[in-house]
Records
---
Amino acid sequence: MGSTGEGFGRRDLIKRSAALGLISVPTMSFLSACASGGEDTTKGPDKGAVSKENPFGVAKGGKMDVVVFKGGFGDDYAKAWEAAFDKKWGTTSSHLGTQEITGKLQTRFNGGNPPDVVDNSGAQKIKLDVLFKSNQLADLTPVLDAPSLDDPAKTVRDTLIAGTVEQGTQGGKFVSLNYVYTVYGFWYSGKLFKEKGWTPPKTWDEFLAVCAKAKEAGLGGLAHQGKYPYYINVVIMDLIAKKGGLEAMKAIDNLEPNAFEGNAAALAAVEAVYEVVEKDLLLPGTNGLTHTESQTAWNQYKAAFIPSGSWLENEQLKQTPDDFDMQFLPVPLLADSKLPFEAIRAGAGEPFIVPEKAANKAGGLEFIRSMLSREWSTIFAQQANSLTVVKDGVDPGVKLRPGTQSAVTALKAAGTNTFNYLYPDWYSEMDTAIQDASNELMAKRIQPKEWIKRAQAAVNKAAQDPNAKNNRRS
Amino acid sequence: MSQVVRGRGRAGFIAGFLLAPLALYLTFVIWPYVQTFGYSFTNWTGQSPTFDFVGVDNYSALMKDEVFRGALWNNLLLLVFVPVVTILLALFFAFMVNAGGRGGAGGVQGVAGSRLYKVVYFFPQVLSLAILAVLFGAVYRTDEGGLLNGVLIRLGIVDRLHPIEWLNEPRLVLWCLLLVVVWHGVGFYLVLFSAAMQSVPKDIYEAALLDGAGRAQTFFKVTLPLLWDSVQTSAVYLGIAAMDMFVLVSTMTSGQFGGGPDHHSEVMATVLMRNFLYFGKSGYACAMGVVMLVLTMILSVITLRATRRERIEF
């Protein structure tokens, strides 16, 4: 094998193309993703006549394009909805259930031909704040003011659980319907607690005591989904809200310069969580486990508590033993808390949106209105084992599983004492930075004071966002 | 026909064939680059066709971005270690498999069972990166259910209550990832080097043997110089892998598109992706893309220059 010295040597060619590859391969995939299409002119369908039964003027026999996140709730419920919608309006629905919302839809938003309704959820959702800033979201206020399908004398707004509208508001506009009603807190096995003779704790000290007893029994006290610090953040943030009251929560959402720094409630909350770490009451290894791994370990009675939202039961359906008796526990209280023990974070999740440039925007709005009927809400409860934001929206005939039932009970006990943070929807970057800090805290690599410093730095950075001044809550 | 005419005719002939691929290349590679360059001067969110021109703001912000600088440093570390470790191991194994054995009667052959080793070493290469991530996810799992922790706990080296949090340990995470890449790559380069070694005439080895060269001397004085071209090409290919790393880091480590814990395993691609898709700073991400392009260009030039050597004809 020798080189001939004229023309291209084979190896030279290979080497040159390899060098070219070195330049192009790593960058190419990302860069080509940057290419955006031009703005297409969207041609609207024929409008139907606006009437009391048809407040948005849906054209009969049109097309509907529905994209839903196919996650913990599956997408059977959406198929059932589409069938119902098609039957009523003579439309032809196309359905897509996917986990890759961004991957499937980003180019469509850029190209000006988005679907008519999107369930924008999951890890790969398109961030709402980003869509909103780009004027891609239709204002859903007309749906709120339209008559309810169950009782034309009421508006849709009257049939919603309090807080739904606030949760879906960006910069003063109602742009996303967070459809699934979720409560957040700790979860435990009723069976395990009965067996060991533990009582569900109401204060943080009692909580630590149960964790200590669990440790003596050879179990972990607290499990958390360490690879996703989102979950432990729920505990920290709920402790802050309960100790400092709604003012402390609003200070964070409103990006106050003293949201964390100089806020005694925040420091107390972080120190409380850090106590679990210091006293070595975590499930061993939990800091690096995924949500599935840690939740399954908890289902196997390896830990007493785990934080999560009420989707947990549906998510763990297959891993939960039949006699597990999943139970919800509001985050226990620190001393001198402003909110009562029963207070819980509760809020609407699973945001449904109608794109501003949807081809059949009227159809999209009507679809949202139909979702808020009792009929569709019951379909969802049956197919997805979860509650919706429609007040009393489930036929009493539907029997609930123990976890969901305990969540409903907790919600009743909480009454008006529910709260919910909005910053994760408003400021993705700040949320991520605080999660990073929590991950460090749980791994004992930073102290509570450092956590406060980093969280405040994230808040201050978010406050520089020009959009921040539109996001105020009072 | 004169030499010149023949050369020109050949170039035209080649160019004719290259026209279609060139057009494709221009449309799908070069044009996006140009677009990216344009976007890097805007505040494009990635979700809308409208954006404003912001000049070099993105680039000046990038200068101050500690996360991106950390990612760049990690990429450079990987750029050094991935090629060096992989090539050294692959060379060693290839040598042992092809010429490391000492047969009877002065023949040159591999160690016993070398055929089997060649196949076994190649196994990891046929696994896709996604499978690799799942596989090593189980190896590095942070509780006693993990392969490494499970073994270490059984052996009594690690306390059951405080298992090692491999990928959640700032000091370990990058090296854990490095191991995955090396494990995955060695087999392929072993086969590549084996093929190159087999094209080296046996008589050269036999001459070295007759002169009394040991294994080490044979390797450094005969094998390595004759393999230099292959090593050089491998280094460039592995450089590509080291500059990318996106799939492994984003699937195996914590954080949006990976990079955790606390940015300790961040590479440029993960930072880019997070800003592009999650934070809605696509213009800024495009600026990162341009920086990546410039860096990789410089690096590939340096690599090719630094490894240039006189070719040994045989």
---
Amino acid sequence: MKARWHWLLVPPVVLSVGLLAASQFVFLRGSFFRDLRLGRFGTEPTLYNYLLVFTDSFYLDSLWLTIRLSAIVVVLTLLCGYPAAYVIARLRSRWAMLLLAMIVVTSFVTIVIKVLGLVILFSSGGMLNRFFLGLGLLDRPFTILGNLTGVTIGLMHFTLGFAVLLLYGVIQTIPRSLEEAAQIHGASRWRVFWRVIIPLSLPGVIVSALIIFNLSMGAFTSAALIGAGKIYTLPVLIQHTVILQTKYAMGATLSAVLLMTTLLINLLSLMIVARLPAARRLTA
Amino acid sequence: MTKLVSRRDVLAGGAGLAALPLVAAPALAQSPRVDGVTLRIATFGGGWEKALHDFIGIELEKLGGKDEYLPSPPRESLAKLIAARGREAPVDVLEMADNTWVDTFDGGFLQKINLANIPNKKDLEPHQYDENKVASWNTQEGLLYNIDKFKENGIPVPERYSDLTHPKLAGKISMIDISQAGSTQFLVGASLDAGGSESNLEPGLKLLKQLNVHKFWKLGAEALTQMQAGDSWVAVMHAGFAVQTRRNGLNYGFVHPKVGAKRGMLKEGWLGIVKGSKNAAAAEFFLNAYVDAEAQEKLALRRGIVPVNPTARANLAKDPLLKDILLLSREDVNNMVRVDFTKLDLAAMNDKWTRAVAN
Amino acid sequence: MIGPLARLMRPVPGVAWLAALYVFLLAPLIVVVGASFNGGDRGALNFPPTDLSLRWYGAVPMGLYRALGISLGLALVTALVGCLLGVPAALGLIRATFRGKQVVGALFRAPLQVPAVVIGVSFLQFYYLVGDRTGFYAVDNVAGLMVAHIFMATPYVIGPVGAVLQRFNPRLEEAALILGATRWSTFRRVTLPLIMPGIYAGAVYAFMISFADLPVSLLLAGTNIKTFPVEIFQAMDYDFNPALLAVSTMIIIFSLVAMVLLQRAIGLNALLRTGGAS
């Protein structure tokens, strides 16, 4: 009976992993040959491109920046998104539906348009800056375009909606009666939150974290537009290398490094999570 | 190295060929029918392809043909050609900015144009066509600035790129991003003006690092919004944007930067026919119709480019606003800097720029 | 014991948090919506609007509506196929026990970290190779773009459905089976409603991935297939047209209505009222 579940995996594995393997094999193979520009490669296999990447601090800095950025986005998205998802999941009102719908809709406006809104919001003479400068909370205008804060915020505009929707789905499976029972037994709300809700929704938190991390590692459009030509995450560099420099072998090498690093971080973090006491209780 | 030489030969050859067509032209007074032919053109989207259809494709339809547009900017078109290498041509006509023309030619993706079928070349300068490419449009790159802000702060109107170093402009400059084709004109112009050249871009890169850039713009609308919000007072853009903003009642000025003894930076669009195209005759007809004076004038009015056809330019000069902002006379245009892409290593330029500005 | 004041104040921190989050998410949209009602000339975005008008709503180019239609269709198919692939994948991934499960899970997420331009270029190359063998070239047609979008979107379904499934007690299904229900009706009556919030989250974001994609569309969209982000991007490259803000505002309003209707249709509101599984 148990074996039957395996079969469900066959079509998605064939399609999804198959497409991944096939397309990436075609593209990443180029990383093992010399770059002759314009999509042309040398004939001798070589690790020269990898040597170039790993001995060039510019590429390594960019990789490190991308990892850091993605980690920050994960932490902030969960910190902001989890409580929100919890509140919505526990809201006994019709408003909850509208709130969920609104969060989705914020992701519907293309970043190409949204960036204009951000330019206005954070302009030096704009409302936000005038307000905070007036209160004396800032001593000079604050901008988010062309810095890491901005790219983080830009990514969060996409990840937050996804996280809230996902976590809402998980939290609403936790019966309210459980919380009520714990409270009747004298546990404070915070205690219930920490000891009951969080551990029970841990699978959702882990999945959200991984998905947000991975998509931030690969994000291009928002990073490119809000990075304002000053922030070069690895996907932006890869786009330059392939499209503007037509150095396919180099682009493939950077892409392989990005793919492998992210996979490695995924597996490592899952191994670490598996050792957490809360996760143990869950699987026990 | 051999590649560079061949490309230079090609450019030189173009001038020599200029005399030839005079003989062939009369035979072409009547255009051949192109019944049943669907011509595929890779070009920009966002309304540009509609303009091409309205002013040029429509002529093809009159002869029984059809025009279809593949919406992709030049660099993406190049990526498509690279993927399709050695196979059937995915499109017939390719629209390219100057920085993409070089790579497309080097990649061997273009086929020879029969210049006898481009009678309208009689209007063009010899350097505007050869058997590999025909000029399509120009933009004039320079500095768009907020006149009021400059006055208020007592900043003199800039004359050359190096004037952007004025201390009061620190943090108020919207610089073109390297992903935009016009970034080459800025970097080459700044380099030439400071003693460099297409093969020595160090002076331009030095200026770039020296400037306190507020933001590198990737979308025209974004740069304009930023100027409107007062975050930047000057933007490195092309004159078409100045025409637009002035028509919209904004008090913006435009500077064609001095570069040595020359004035202004020309960015050139090119048309090419893709190697293996089976519709060469229709493609050549399209190229010819593209450079026609009337089509050029209409394109310029709708989409803000500068015509490559001098008759069209002369007509535009009747508009006082256009005359004020654009360089339209033949002498003025010929005194602008045309970047010599045969001496430029684009990939290295891109790499150096990125490293210079990355935070 | 909770005093009346404390009881009144109880939801305040949560609601304040929620309000802050919505301000953060909605602020740029409010600027876009507000500026779309500014009737003044083009030039640049004006906010707050100085002369209120619906002028730009009438000035949306037809091409933009066509592009919107293409993008909507593409996104719907992507979401649908994404679910058809993602739901079984999540079921299999959570329910089956086998070695290397984590690796398969990580591979399912891998499309997320492949930069879009690499997806575009590698799928182009891949399609040409397939075409050389089979004679069918998936370049320059909508099928190729669709497959790439489905590839990018499926991880967004697998994640949430898997997360909800992990919380869900398989004994409910066993009980239904013991009571004589068929496998299919057990799935439809028991499992599906319970994982619906996960499917909803996944489908909506699968839709979004396709609807918002720019770099892949630039490389894979065929002749005359202009997707909405491509049109917007290329239009904004040339100038600023307030009609783009108007059309974005329409999208905001229509998608809000659509989302509320969808939530009703899939019974998310019923879940909310009962407080979910109990």
---
Amino acid sequence: METSKQTDQNRKEPQHRATRSKMPNISRLSMASPLAYVIAFLLTFLIGGAVIYALTGQNPIAVYGSFFSHSFFSQYGILEVLAKATPIIIAGAGMIIAFRCGLWNLGAEGQMAIGAIVATAIGVNLNLPAGILLPVIFLASFIGGALWSGIAGFLKTKFGVHEMLSTLMLNYIALKLLEYMISGPLSMPHPNYPRTSEILSQAQMPFLQYPLNTTFLIALALIPIVWFIINRTSLGYRLQAVGFGREAARLAGMDIAKLTMIVMLISGGIAALGGTVEVVGDFMRMERNVTGGYGFTAIVVVMLAREEIIAMPFAAFFISGMIVGASSLTLAGIPASFSQILIGLLLLCVIFAGYIERWLRQRWEYAGKMAC
Amino acid sequence: MTLDLIVNLLFATLNILPIYLIASLGGYLSQRVGVYDISMEGNMTFAAVLGIIGFFVADSPWMGLLFGFLGGVFFGLILATLAVRFNLDQIVIGFGLWFLGLGLGSFLYKLYVPSDQHTIGFSTLGQLVGYKGELTGFARFLELDVIFYLSILLLIIISLVVYRTRLGLQMRATGENPAAADAAGVNIFRIRYFTILVGAGLVGIAGAYLAVAFLQGFTSGMVAGRGWIAFSIVIFGRWKPSNIFWGCLLFAGINGLQVRLQTIGVTIPSDLMTMAPYIVTLIALVIIMSRSGRSRIPSALGIPYYRE
């Protein structure tokens, strides 16, 4: 899997891309402009509507009406969208640090599972005052997630195993571990279905306004922190340098292996908090679906945000809206997995719209030259 | 007693083998011509549901495979159009298709699959040749189904085509050095389109086979990373069909062991036991990566081709 290195070196760069003044963005969607995004959104909903009409025979306009009124256009909907965006934002913030270093940490789902396991294990058993217990839970989850993604970092630096495959495998291992924990060691006595006992009341974070929990503030606070790490610290400078050109960074004397390890640890640690907040701010216990696929969704969110930390919460908000909107459609007989269809389509449409835009621009420039 | 155990394990393994073998050969084909098919997991999920729907259309597992194949070809068409025609990033396309496949899969499942979704697999070789006697020892090869034998045949055909025919030479040239192949008069786009469609179709067949014949029903999350494992098998099979076969055998063996251990009542929690394939993938990756040796990675893999 030597893909990223090769493609980045050999791909033909469009001219306008080199004019960006700040540290070059290595994102794979970096060509798409806001206009391309708007076109892509429209195209996505158009195709999604066609899918609905073709497969269920329902009127797509009516379906989308319900879709939006339950997500973006009602107070409860907005709160729920923000609540669902919380774990995605946290997982995405963790992943971005790795992505900017050219490391494909696709293991947010597994890291979240580890965070959830650690949070539940402590939250159920460790009877401390809230002021101590919550920091302990978050710190321990961070360490747990860091160690988990550290496995991928270790395999990468020691054996050259591509982190994309190792983190994906670690996802499945962590999810199995989670299932084992809820049916075995952490299971509540005599559950109706596999789940753990509720965490202690002092470990439960309060709601701002149901269903939005105070954990959302943690997600928001992470954004400037991660922005600061990436853009204002020596570590961030080095990781971006490696992300832009591994070989050049090595020749400049950077210890790539050490940096890879540090970045994977931080990235996994932050992503794990996504699972923690699900336990202490939403489920208040651990169940099978506590990670809810948000770690996988975060991959798409990070790609859509072009690996920019400031743009990421907005992408997360939008994707979360799709999840909430689609889950409201189950009453109308449309499965909630419609959100996954939309998310997949959106990614394909954004990359395609980027192409169309590039093509139009070249046409435009060509016509301009001809006119002169 | 132990011999019995080993024989049982062997046949449990061979039973599962076609899923991995067909899927990774499909992934191998598109990587051979220089395009990553990251969407295998989504493709298999989508094709699994289509396979079940196809089964109930004609009450035949073959119709299930056909539906799965067509679903795979549909995904291949999107991949080929975006990656070959428009030269867009293969990784991003792959993730998009992954989500699309998962979504479409469970969407169709909820809408179209009947609640009693029990399917019937393929007839075994024994049934086909009309053998009625007791199946012991080597005769147990008769209890493997037709698809097992077809998948072995597929392996042989693909190896022969890729390494012994003109088409295979063009495929390899396209994956190694498209510019040179183009200059030599190979139609890069046609070769890539064709190979990706066939490859993705095979991945679809694997998904349909998994649902229709192996698990005989669909549950959400059923593919459970098998697509990603098949993808990894191509990588650490070093893009060589024979290695891919051994890789598939290894994973089928792990799955078989899991099944056997459960039936003889070994008390390892099943959740922990189901972790084994993923852990083995990691270990296999470590072993392969730490063994120095010439990598046979197609040189143009993942790189868009622009005609000069």
---
Amino acid sequence: MLAFTIRRLLQAILVMLVVALIAFTLFRYVGDPVNQMVGVETSAEEREALRERLGLNAPVMVQFARFIGHAALFDFGTSYQFKQPVADMIGKRLPATLELSLVSALLALLVGIPMGVYTGLNRDSALSKFFLSVSLIGISLPTFLIGILLIFVFSVNLQWLPSFGRGEVVQIGWWSTGLLTTSGLKALVLPAITLGLFQMTLIMRLVRAEMLEVIRTDYIKFARARGLPDRIVHFRHALKNTLVPVITIAGLQLGTIIAFAIITETVFQWPGMGLLFLQAVQNVDIPIMAAYLMLIAFLFVVINLIVDILYFLVDPRLRAERAVH
Amino acid sequence: MSEHPLLSVRDLKVDFPTRRGTLKAIDGISFDIARGEILGVVGESGAGKSLTGSAIIGLLEPPGRISGGEVRLKGDRIDNLPAKAMRHIRGKRIGMIFQDPLTSLNPLFTIGEQIVETIMAHLPVSEREARERAVHLLDEVGIPAASQRLGAYPHQFSGGMRQRVVIALALCAEPELVIADEPTTALDVSVQAQIIRLLKRICRDHGASVMLITHDMGVIAETCDRVAVMYSGRIAEIGPVADVVRAPRHPYTIGLMGAIPTLDATEDRLTQIPGSMPRLDAIPSGCAFNPRCAHVFARCRQERPEPIDVGSSKVACWLAEEDGSRTIVDKKKADQLS
């Protein structure tokens, strides 16, 4: 277990180095950084001075090493557009995106898994067919359309929930949370549903397919033959066996939720990283893009590591023990 | 109560409704199992042996359903019980052992967890008592160092050991009947005999009757008190093992016995019954065996023979009824009959 974790950590570091190389290449070679920073009327000497000051004349390997050294300290330079340190800007935006993503993921899991279990066990019931039809909508409608529909119904017509922003936030250290105020929670509802709906239907369909598979296995038949109550057969024996693929997908999807919160954040003007990233793209603000790339890669790597460790906890066959005869 | 046999199956029918009509997988079978008796059920794949077991324990997989007849356990009907009442019979009064021990145990739970949950589902004991009982059972089925193996997962056991665990699981709530569905088919030949002996001993010790489903006549001959030979969802012949094995009356049973290789056989090739068992959607009228039978005559193709008493056996064959007028051609078997 420990050896496995260390091995995975080393792999994770390798992945991060590769991503850093891409981010660095982006930073260094997509246009000339100096041109992005200075105006048209800056003289050639001033440009050269800036180039020297930024260390752009050093050998590429040295620059890359420097980039990594800075990145390890969360220093991604200064935004061209806002003239602020990128790390600070992302630090301010990160809580908004993470809260939205985690709430969406929780919603997707807490609703998706029970719906999947239900539709897997009662495949022919009317409610199952209803769930499956609705899930088709969730899978096929694009996120922005769902967001706009929700705004139209709940903000414009019913006027129950706000259509944009994060509501009031409470500052806890550097972390700003909207989970502790009523307006913050109200503001979270629509974006969380918008962002989580696709994942929810995906998880529901996955759990359903896995359940259908598992309840046909011999050990479920044997569990029934032992006279165990349905509740134990379904939720203890069957559900646990569906978890390995569900954990994989849910983990990957959490990364996707965070990375693709961009669209939802744009629709709801949610002050998160996605919105920041979109502005950065519009203004060719390379440091922000590079930092965002690194951050998302980092989150994916961390989530994958957690998923791998969860496998171990769920499935005893993966634990490196030798079979005893 | 005591005049009732432990298990009594009367005219049991199992259907599979399909789009192209209803398939009769089991078509009117009747048999009894007495207390402490071991009944072997033998037949080719698809003869309905396993389905009979599933039907008795109420675990037919949809769309399969019992379409007629009744199953009585100590005189009480159990084939039409509501799901909840049937659950209390499964495990508690009828235990079941499946073919493949490698897949019968849930891979994600320790064997201790699986035994304890089964005991606690049926008996009013505390978890500690259930654990003690589990250790005792594992010990009884021959798992060495049982108390240390409670925390082991199924994949840490070999096939034979897993089948021992499965036997312990099937017996942990002291059922009166154990249905063992080909309990050794998936096992290594070297451990098959061990498992069969274990099953026989432990069921005798616990006073449980056994319905042993197998296609291995050797196992039947060694283990069972009586045997039922199934063909195409019907019982061809049922009777004491000694009679059926040594003096089979139904041409199908005769063919089955003839197909067992013996060491002193002089033929190069094994004898076999020509043809194969009919598909469920093409069971011939009259006796289901008639297209393959060497002794077929007109009546076999028109009327279905019902089991009739011949000595201590029951045989579903017109030959048996007309035994005086017709003789079975097979000389060797005919000698044994007399």
